[in-house]
Amino acid sequence: MAGNAVVGKVSEHASWSSRYFGKIIQTALEIHGHDPNLVATVTGMAEAGQALVQDPLVDKIIFTGSTPIGKKVLSASASNLTPVILELGGKDAMVIRHDCILKEIFPFVMRGCFQNAGQNCVDS
DSSP string covering 74-109, please? Predict the structure, then answer.
């Protein structure tokens, strides 16, 4: 909400949902008086991601994905000394409280682990 624009490059395996979620984000921005064009979504293969991480106009990169691709992101961003945050190889770790009812949360845990072949983050 500091006025910074965001460009999200989604996995080529989850492109189908990017327009739907992008519209939700843009609507929320508009409702709260912000320019809905502050957030854009890019779809495509590795070349699209590579173009973004090598662009000198990009001020920061946040990548969630596999360790091999994270290494490529870090390497490609080095020429511009772009700051990078990497969340690599996660397995949707969760904290489950001792007083929860497992049979009620188990469906959400499994969905978080396997939906979209792991190409999304779930906070429960």
Answer: HHHHGGGT--EEEEES--------TTS-HHHHHHHH
The pLDDT tens digits for 20-42 are 888 999 999 999 998 999 999 98
Alpha carbon distances (Å) from 40 to 4, 56, 68: 12, 18, 25
pTM to 2 decimal places = 0.68
Kindly state the DSSP code that residue 120 receives in the 8-state scheme. Answer: S
In this structure, are residues 63 and 87 in contact, taking their beta carbons and an 8 Å threshold? Answer: yes
Active-site residue list: 87, 121
**DSSP state, residue 103:** H
Q: Is the dihedral of CA 94, 20, 9, 6 positive or negative?
A: negative
